[in-house]
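Changelog-adjacent note: as of this version, every example in the card shows the full chain rather than a window. The one below runs 119 residues end to end.
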Amino acid sequence: MKTGPQAPRSGAALAASCDFQSPANPTAFRRWLFSNCLVGPILTSYRATPQELLDPLTIRERQIVQLIAEGKSSKDIGEALHLSVRTVETHRSRIMEKLNMHNVAALVRYAVRRGLISA
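Full-length structure tokens:
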């Protein structure tokens, strides 16, 4: 079991360590506890930008979208990322399914909008 500052804390321990003035309204208290003591520290430690929180793609999928948008073939992407051609094609298929896109042109537009490539 971990101890010290890196040790995971129970919900009760987190609640006890947080400073909430008036627990008279249980709903307000739960909302405050959730945002300030439970979710806030987790998101802060993750250090994700708001754009990353809204992006449905993983880091690897974003890399692949970037390379597809740059015009690379599955073979070139595989060599660059040390993946098999089949793995790249599977990633491409799942990316397009996640984003509900049906062609490479739509992926290129997505990459430009997300700043993965310049126009």
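Structural remarks: Helices lie at 11-17, 26-46, 50-54, 59-69, 74-81, 85-99, 104-113.
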